[in-house]
Amino acid sequence: MNTHQRLLVIDFGSQVTQLIARRLRELGVYCEIHPYQNVTPDFLTRFTPWAIILSGGPASVLDSDPPCPPKEVFSQNAPVLGICYGQQVMVQMLGGKVERGRRIGNGEISDPAIGDVFAGPSGSRVNSEFGRAYITSKGALPLLEGWFGEPTEQVWMSHGDHVAELPPGFEVFGVSSKAPFAVVADVRRGFYAVQFHPEVHHTPNGKRLLENFVRMAGFTGDWSMGAYRDEAINRIRREVGDSKVVCALSGGVDSAVAAKLVHEAIGDSVTCVFVDHGLLRKDEAEEVIGMFRDHFNIPLIHADESDLFLSELKGVTDPETKRKTIGRLFIDVFRRHAAAVGGAGFLAQGTLYPDVIESVSFSGEPSVTIKSHHNVGGLPERLGLKLVEPLRELFKDEVRALGREIGLPERFIGRHPFPGPGLAIRCPGEITRAKLEILRNADAVYIDQIRRHGLYGEIWQAFVVLLPVRTVGVMGDGRTYDYVCAIRAVTSVDGMTADSYPLSHEFLAETATRIVNEVSGINRVVHDITSKPPGTIEWE
């Protein structure tokens, strides 16, 4: 990405650092997130950032060995914006002073390292804020252009430590009831710092602040999916050369966009392997095959192995055993069919930028919990293949935008996420063909209802779960004893947290009526309104 104007986000372990990058990408600014310990003076020289943002984090600058960027960050002739912990580390490094929060009632104490996530003892605090706060202007600042249309501006605070004394050259431009240094800046040197989080939705005008920052840094918004498409195609051609490529096609958006992009780059030198484990949604296999093989003319192997998967899952009820069984079989099946391609040197997969970030922990070491789909179960090593990952710089919303650029249909691009184990984890208890058929039909009715009511685009994920419970019902003056299904719809940004979507009672009643009347085998519908946490989005 050296051809783009680049912004560097230095990560100190905040749970919302990814949101900073997403907001910037939405503004047409290419940025990368790097853990603070990987940002060396040599790295800065190579990266040549146009601007730098210091993220929040859970540490305290008053610890014995606090996370800090190299001092060269402040000599790059590039604007720097510090957020929460980023403000505190900037102030501390440039000659100011940071103090710990204090609790009323027990005297002054040293708090645990709080930063973004309040994990310390409860109690009223002085100079600590968690949640919604309001700041007041203390002077005009280009960073805050478009702010303070009202006397105060709503922001989201989450800090225990606080700035107590500013470095030389800094002035105060915004205050809150508990943060007298909520917005500070050394305008001459281009250093800006805020105690709140502009990247979160709870700071309604936060995106405008980030937009002002990148405008002041000279960014022209040269990052677009049209440009990325051309760059990615050229890079794939250079990387792959004359080799053949196999692509693990799951039917999801990520693998579909990756497959189509690789095909645009090298044509029929790529072959997609679509493993059909018999756990897909209604008519999903036919839709994927029709689009890729028939419409786009991309070589595709349809590995219909539903008999194998369902026979191995017979009698299995434990959710983790289900997942492991499906993962093991997927690897075996994919290896067998990919080997039939012959001469393949690369495996293409739809790794995204969040996958790359999550695969490296805050300490810079490999994460303990790398998701299995990041490396398709270790297939590259087992097959002796090199990886080609054309989406590894992109967030999910950018992948959808790229999908539109390369001509994938909107109905396919906007599909809700679907888990790798498929309907196996939406069918608690033993899996049978009969139960899967009931579940598919009920899910199809539910999704049709959501589309009819114009709700599909507002919902992150919606699905039906077939419960291992049967109840008595009355239909046509006769007794029934059929299954119960649960319907679920959630809103989310990235799937890490989720809220139940507020479906109306009228919608729920209409949907329940349709499912019971149109799907044989179900006589009762319930509604799951659990948030994540404490629940999970899926049931298993």
In short:
The chain has 540 residues and is of the alpha/beta class. 31% of the residues lie in helices and 23% in strands.
Characterization of this structure:
The chain has 540 residues and is α/β, with parallel strands linked by helices. The radius of gyration is 26 Å and the shape is globular. The chain starts with 5 loop residues before the first strand and ends in a 12-residue tail after the last strand. It has a 9-stranded mixed β-sheet with strand order 2-1-3-4-13-12-11-8-9, sandwiched between helices. Strands 16-15-14-17-18 form a 5-stranded parallel β-sheet, sandwiched between helices. Strands 19, 20, 21 and 22 form a 4-stranded mixed β-sheet that branches. Helix 6 crosses helix 12. Mean pLDDT is 86; it is low at 103-126 and 361-377. The protein has helices at 17-26, 41-47, 85-93, 206-216, 225-240, 253-266, 284-295, 306-312, 319-339, 353-358, 379-383, 396-405, 410-413, 433-452, 505-518, and strands at residues 6-11, 30-35, 51-54, 80-83, 97-99, 102-103, 125-126, 129-137, 152-159, 162-165, 171-175, 183-186, 191-194, 244-249, 270-276, 300-304, 344-348, 386-388, 461-475, 478-491, 499-500, 522-528.
